[in-house]
Amino acid sequence: MSGVPNGFTVSTPASEHSLRRPFAELGFAIASKELALAAAVATVRRTMEMLALDNDWISRSELCLQEALLNALCHGNRRDPSREIHVRCIFSAVKVELHVEDDGTGYESNRDFSGVRGTSPGGRGLFLIHQLMDSVAINRTGNHIVMSLTKESSHGNQRYAG
User: Fold this and answer.
1) How far apart are CA 147 and CA 137, in angstroms?
2) Angstrom distance (rounded) from CA 68 to CA 84
3) 141 in a structural domain
4) How far lies 12's CA from each of 17, 18, 81, 146, in Å?
5) Which residues contact 32 (CB under 8 A, 6 or more apart)?
6) Residue 26, exposed/middle/buried by CB under 10 A (0-12, 13-18, 19+)?
7) E strand or H helix that includes residue 148
8) CATH code of the domain containing 63
9) Is residue 13 part of a domain?
10) Would you say residue 4 lies in a domain?
């Protein structure tokens, strides 16, 4: 068997490629650069694929993470490469939670998204995030968003005091 030292044997269950209780937690900071955003999204996607999470969850998480990171880059950190974007993700078979926090001063978090169209650039990212995620929470400052998908969804968008 390749990768196994001589004298050792490896026994694997019949379904060796399925995890019983998939769970992972990621946390990292990236520079405010577009290439770093792409690498962050790819890392999160690979982790979700490795855990064999639902393809719909992977697609929705990838798009929402990309939108949140773009907002952090463009609006929060104003494309200042000396500023960082902090990403934290928690994955399990019953919940996905994505955190994105930038070094900016935030924005008015009481925004009404009812007039936003999916094709207009102003507010499109947050509009999509609110449509695709089961829960969205933004801190009072407006520089930290928490997006989640759950098996038993409440479909509520909340704020937290953080």
Assistant:
1) 7
2) 14
3) yes
4) 9, 11, 46, 37
5) 72, 73, 77, 79, 80, 81, 82, 83, 84, 85, 102
6) middle
7) strand 144-150
8) 3.30.565.10
9) no
10) no
DSSP letter for each residue of 84-120 = EEEEEEEEESSEEEEEEEESS----TT---TT--TTS
Residue whose C-alpha is closest to residue 66's, from 6, 132, 114, 14? 132
How many domains does the chain contain in total? 1
Look at the block and give the residue holding tokens 């790819």: 42
Inside any domain, residue 52:
yes
pLDDT tens per residue, the chain (162 residues)? 444 444 444 444 445 556 577 899 999 999 999 999 999 999 999 999 999 999 999 999 999 999 999 999 999 999 999 999 999 999 999 999 999 999 999 876 666 666 666 566 678 899 999 999 999 999 999 999 999 999 876 554 444 445
Q: Which domain holds residue 60?
A: 23-160
